[in-house]
């Protein structure tokens, strides 16, 4: 009986510790928390060049925190498991005003390798 109780207790502790929270700073004033599953050991990074207004998750004239939430919601709708998500500066913006022009920022996502082809079809790259 004592042995069974210990095993059940260990299973409960393991279950509650199966996810780790990590804070991703989208803006120095507005941290965004993304849950990172420990099973993501073999996860891969993919990237997306942000555009002026052609991104499928919406316009880019919102705060970085709201943008990250919009991106994460979009990827969740595609059933993509996102382990980490951030926006980083990647160079100067393109000198044009079309919606497809690059802003100079890149969206970086750490995902399950099984979701790679789906995001490649959504204009992400490795």
Structural write-up:
It is a single chain. The protein is built from three helices and five strands. With 126 residues, the protein is α+β, with helices and mostly antiparallel strands. The chain has one domain. Mean pLDDT is 78; it is low at 3-7 and 9-28.
Poorly predicted residue ranges? 3-7, 9-28
Q: Work out the strand percent.
A: 25-35%
Characterize the largest beta sheet: strand count, sense, and whether it forms a barrel.
Answer: 3 strands, antiparallel
Oligomer: single chain
Principal-axis shape equals globular
Q: How many helical elements?
A: 3
Any idea how many domains? 1
Going across the biggest sheet, name each strand in turn.
3-5-4
- Helical coverage, percent range: 25-40%
Can you give the mean pLDDT? 78
Sequence of secondary-structure elements = HEEEHEEH
Number of strands: 5
Estimated radius of gyration: 18 Å
> N-to-C terminal Cα separation, in Å?
52 Å
Query: Pairing-aware structural class of the strands and helices?
Result: alpha+beta
Mind sketching the topology for me?
Blueprint: H1 2-16, E1 19-27, E2 30-37, E3 44-51, H2 64-77, E4 82-89, E5 102-111, H3 116-120
Antiparallel strand pairs: 1-2, 3-5, 4-5
Quick tags:
single chain; about 130 residues; alpha+beta; three-stranded antiparallel beta sheet; two-stranded antiparallel sheet; 3 helices; 5 strands; disordered N terminus
Q: Summed up, what is this model?
A:
This protein is α+β, with helices and mostly antiparallel strands.
């Amino acid at each position: 009986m004592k042995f069974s109780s210990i095993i059940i207790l260990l299973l409960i502790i393991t279950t509650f510790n199966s996810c780790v929270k990590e804070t991703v700073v989208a803006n120095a004033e507005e941290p965004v928390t993304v849950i990172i599953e420990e099973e993501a050991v073999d996860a891969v990074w993919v990237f997306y060049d942000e555009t002026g207004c052609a991104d499928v998750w919406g316009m880019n004239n919102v705060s970085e925190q709201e943008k990250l939430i919009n991106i994460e919601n979009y990827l969740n709708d595609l059933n993509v498991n996102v382990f980490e998500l951030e926006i980083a500066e990647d160079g100067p913006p393109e000198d044009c005003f079309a919606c497809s022009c690059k802003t100079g920022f890149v969206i970086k996502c750490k995902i399950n390798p099984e979701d790679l082809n789906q995001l490649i079809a959504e204009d992400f790259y490795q």
